[in-house]
Amino acid sequence: MCGIAGFVVVKSGPYVHAAASLRAMSSLIAHRGPDGLGDWTSADTSVGFVHRRLAIIDLSPGGAQPMQAPNGTVITYNGEIYNYVELRKALSAHWTFRSTSDTEVILAAYDKWGEDCVTHLRGMFAFALWDARNRKLFAARDRFGIKPFYYTVQQGRLFFASEAKALLPFLPDIKTDSSALAEYLTFQYTIGEKTLFEGVSTLLPGHCLAVSGGDIKVGRYWDVQYEVDFDHSPRYFEAKFKELLLDSMDIHLRADVPIGGYVSGGMDSSLVALLASRHDHRNRDAFHGRFLEHPGYDESRYAREVAELAEMSLHISDITAQDFRNHIHDVIYHLDFPVAGPGSFPQFMVSALAAKHLKVVLGGQGGDELLGGYARYLVAYFEQSIKAAMDGTYRHGNYVVTIESIVPNLGLLREYRPMIKEFWREGLFDDIDQRYFRLVDRSTDMVGEVNWSSLDKPRVFEAFRAIFNNQDNVRKEAYFDKMTHFDFKCLLPALLQVEDRMSMAHGLESRVPLLDHPLVEFLATVPADVKFKGGQMKQLMKMAYGDVLPKSVVERRDKMGFPVPLKEWFGGPLKGFVSEVFDQQRARRRDYFNTDVVLENFEGASQFSRKTWGLLSLELWHQRFHDRQSEFKAMVKN
Known about the structure:
The protein is α+β, with helices and mostly antiparallel strands. The protein contains 25 helices and 19 strands. Helices cover 39% and strands 15% of the residues. The radius of gyration is 24 Å and the shape is globular. The mean pLDDT is 91.
């Protein structure tokens, strides 16, 4: 895994600031690749690439980038192609390989299949290549958005990079995109190609981009299809799930360096760590973060039990309020822009610890979206089961909803009473798209803090509904499929942004075996009443691996993501921190926000409210980027 950046002149002609631009971008992504630096510029300076290397496969100089093929094609690439061994064999009659790297496999695949090469790649990737014969730039991003790719078009030139901050020197001004901001305030992530930086776009997961003949074209090459299989038994799905997950584990453990694992104490990361430990005796390091000051946030006993079962050494980061004060500015900088919840902070700390021991870790991202692990799915079905019981209609899509089946699992919602109270405060029994929107809307308690009249929140709902009610790949399936599909398409890329940035901030590669496209495509065919029977979260995983995972982990009823004791800290050792952040002249002049109301309502926010984190992150982001834009502008002339 590495860092990439570059430019191409969209129409024609040289770029006189090519060298300075590449140097600027390279310096802003230097943390992503501590093992090497390379750059390449075409003879006419109309296209240029830079690469920061984190060496994982083929550690020799032969794997260095940008890599140029004998036919003149040049690539800069970030990620891992896990099936590179099989592709190399398939392409050996067509291509004479000069290295053992997966980078060269992409060059060979493109030479044989052209843009369709991406459909043959199994892994996480973002790359750009220059096809000299056809004078075309071709770029692509993996199916799930595990690896990032941002771009901006300025003065007839397209600039791209692994991190949005590397594009800031080329913007006329650093401004906030108002439509992206409305999405962020609603969900704490954006749901389209716009980012919070006005003028900077993200290449969406499963998409590719081509620049040729003065045109820029972006298109989709992959999407998940919910073609539900009603012909097989639960035992078939259980066996198939195990077969595909073990196959994914096998290829995700390909590396020329040892591999460790994050172990949070939940089912997903625990299972990945246990399976990895069985594969190779070198995979014996696990990493965990805990908050000893607040016992309710300490999950280390579950992580320790998993580590002992897997015969792994558990390394623990004891995270404190002072760590938050010392590192939160670094977290915001490396994120590029605020996204998702406060879990990015402890992940930053745990990644720092892991990077002291190795270069690669495995994580459990994807399990909640693919297998139904969020408590809000149970909340949503609880409401639907009450409605169905009153109406006498017990079927919704491919999932049978009965109050009798769901009652035994309601104990899982004990800690979510405040969320349920807020959810049922308005709109009870409305249409399911409106109900799920309310469940994922993080802004319901942001009233006076945000100048909503300056933002278009109705457009956000329409954008949500277009994805939630999309019938091109979800068709008329269950409410469960609609919910998990939205989270898979919108929330998961945000969580993967956190996964990528917090690990790469320390030159650490994070792999996610649950996000292997044969496995994902299979899980989309599994009926909801197998994955979520009776409201049992992650039922299929429990069926398949209940005898492998510790019973205490399988039967947990208190797992809440990566909880952070912000409310306790801000009411105690960090009591003045929020005031320090917001009580500044520039903070009081921000568009869209009323700082006085933010400070007035701060202490009244509930433990489950994301308001404090969301607004604090935005202000810290403004301070780190908007208020210091002169530093970025000075890096290169345009």
